[in-house]
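> call design_seq(struct)
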């Protein structure tokens, strides 16, 4: 969409929202095309592009979002995961591109069960996935025959934990078992037995893993701050460090021959793509597309190239990388009609009041004095603000706002110790980090006390509410997206499959109820003076909509300025373009009204 000079803010925002986000590439087995997800139609749908580049086209129009695509090792088939109105109760569908077919066959059809897609077997006649059909709290591993969807799936592994399929090959299945969000085990399943590959004391975070002939190669952090390439072998008494990196290793993707590994390393938030040969230990850094964040790497079936997605200030696009020459081509996206990208952010650091070093990203508007400063707070908290594309953030910068995206303590990407600095009774230290950064902005003359804005989603929404209540003198406006207002009701009502994992981070209702009550923003709503906008999806399974309704009702009873916007067909976040236009237009106008002097 080309934006004429003098266009209204809503038209300028629409231009950002109409930049298609292309991600999750998967090369079809015949090697002639790549499947991927694109928002070109208004929500994530399945698209296709020739493997060498060319015309992009939508495979199947959908009224609901598609979250994942897994191509078969044979033929022109793929499994996709679809939910309903943001409820995250994923159902699996089979897409067959043979003979021009564009239909979808339902492989699962129980809306009370979550089905997490995994991997195809080598033969392409079975598909492995995880589901919480037995007990809503736990995910077991199943195998189904896509050609016989009515047949009862075969149970491959059962256990009272969250399991998901990581890799499959040679009659073996690699499974990750999550004990907490930051502690995993790797299990190797065969027809004869189940082997535990990663016995450990304390915590072991596994970010990715792959099956090779001489063992399992994993992105893991045994006894380390950052994840490295680690080899685990059945029957071996200890793991082996294969390669370390100056950052977290995040992706490990084996070539079709399983002789090479494509890797992605998180270096200060930027992704760095590597090609690694396990036999020679040769490690090549492959220069790649715009600097940004890589979400997936997918090899072409002949091993000559791979596709990968990059999220940067330019958008989210899929690229092809030729292994031998390093040559690259962008497979998706066109530059014409797009808003000019905002400048890449600057990575800075500030010192918290207790001495902890806090990384943050600074986005500055071009050629103008900033009209105000907005703190953009990420969720998780086991996540990281990174230099990825955000239509709303880009719009705010384009409208003249300076945006600061901090990584407060508890964020990932900076080592195990930093990630645990906010655990349980240390929760409010991360809220103090937000205030410390804000005070530094004021001290440096970059912001004015009472004219700073807050925007955050999920756990970032809690940070918004808690910072507004604990340090009210700093903020002029706050926007809470699907945030936690009451830790007790959140843990009581979040999806049962999540509660145990989240209690490991936040504290348990059995042992920590009084403390959780004491730090819940709804209990301190009387201290909130900044006008608040609350946005939520009715079908949110992670942070139920009651969190939004509680804080709004409490503030209204106190006669405080608060607005509520609920979307009936959304869940944990806003994914439909028409809803995004409504939500972000309202949020931008809200911030401008309260932060920009008249």
């Amino acid at each position: 969409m080309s934006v004429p000079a003098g266009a209204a803010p809503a038209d300028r925002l629409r231009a950002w929202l109409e930049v298609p986000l292309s991600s999750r590439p998967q090369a079809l087995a015949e090697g002639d095309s790549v499947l991927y997800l694109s928002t070109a139609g208004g929500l994530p749908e399945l698209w296709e592009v020739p493997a060498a580049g060319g015309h992009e086209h939508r495979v199947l129009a959908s009224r609901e979002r598609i979250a994942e695509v897994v191509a078969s090792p044979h033929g022109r088939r793929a499994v996709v995961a679809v939910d309903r109105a943001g409820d995250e109760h994923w159902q699996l569908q089979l897409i067959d591109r043979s003979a021009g077919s564009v239909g979808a066959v339902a492989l699962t059809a129980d809306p009370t069960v979550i089905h997490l897609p995994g991997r195809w077997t080598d033969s392409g006649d079975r598909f492995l996935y995880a589901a919480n059909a037995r007990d809503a709290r736990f995910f077991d591993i199943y195998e189904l025959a896509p050609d016989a969807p009515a047949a009862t799936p075969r149970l491959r592994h059962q256990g009272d934990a969250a399991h998901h399929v990581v890799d499959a090959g040679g009659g073996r299945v690699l499974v990750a078992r999550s004990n907490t969000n930051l502690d995993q085990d790797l299990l190797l399943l065969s027809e004869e037995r189940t082997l535990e590959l990663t016995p450990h004391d304390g915590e072991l975070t596994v970010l990715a893993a792959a099956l090779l002939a001489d063992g399992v190669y994993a992105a893991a952090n045994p006894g380390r701050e950052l994840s490295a390439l680690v080899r685990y072998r059945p029957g071996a008494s200890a793991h082996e460090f294969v390669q370390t990196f100056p950052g977290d290793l995040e992706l490990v993707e084996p070539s079709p021959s399983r002789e090479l590994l494509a890797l992605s390393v998180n270096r200060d938030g930027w992704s760095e793509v590597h090609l690694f040969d396990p036999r020679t230990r040769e490690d090549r850094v492959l220069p790649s597309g715009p600097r940004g964040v890589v979400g997936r790497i997918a090899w072409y079936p002949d091993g000559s190239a791979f596709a990968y997605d990059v999220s940067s200030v330019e958008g989210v696009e899929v690229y092809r990388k030729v292994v031998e020459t390093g040559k690259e081509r962008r497979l998706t996206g066109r530059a014409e009609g797009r808003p000019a990208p905002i400048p890449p952010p600057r990575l800075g650091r500030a010192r918290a009041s207790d001495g902890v070093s806090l990384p943050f990203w600074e986005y500055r508007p071009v050629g103008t004095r900033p009209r105000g400063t907005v703190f953009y707070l990420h969720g998780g908290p086991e996540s990281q603000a990174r230099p990825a594309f955000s239509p709303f953030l880009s719009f705010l910068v384009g409208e003249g706002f300076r945006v600061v995206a901090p990584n407060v303590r508890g964020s990932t990407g900076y080592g195990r110790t930093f990630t645990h600095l906010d655990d349980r009774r240390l929760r409010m230290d991360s809220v103090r980090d937000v205030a410390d950064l804000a005070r530094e902005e004021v001290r440096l003359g970059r912001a004015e006390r009472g004219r700073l804005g807050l925007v955050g989603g999920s756990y970032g929404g809690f940070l918004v509410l808690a910072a507004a209540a604990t340090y009210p003198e700093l903020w002029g406006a706050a926007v809470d997206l699907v945030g936690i207002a009451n830790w007790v009701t959140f843990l009581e009502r979040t999806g049962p499959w999540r509660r145990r994992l989240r209690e490991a981070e936040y504290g348990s209702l059995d042992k920590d109820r009084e403390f959780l009550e004491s730090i819940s923003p709804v209990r301190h709503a009387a201290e909130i003076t900044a006008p608040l906008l609350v946005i939520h999806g009715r079908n949110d399974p992670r942070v139920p909509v009651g969190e939004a309704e509680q804080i709004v009702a409490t503030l209204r009873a106190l006669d405080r300025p608060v607005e509520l916007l609920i979307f009936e067909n959304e869940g944990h976040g806003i994914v439909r373009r028409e809803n995004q236009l409504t939500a972000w237009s309202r949020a931008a106008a809200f911030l401008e009204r309260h932060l920009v002097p008249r």
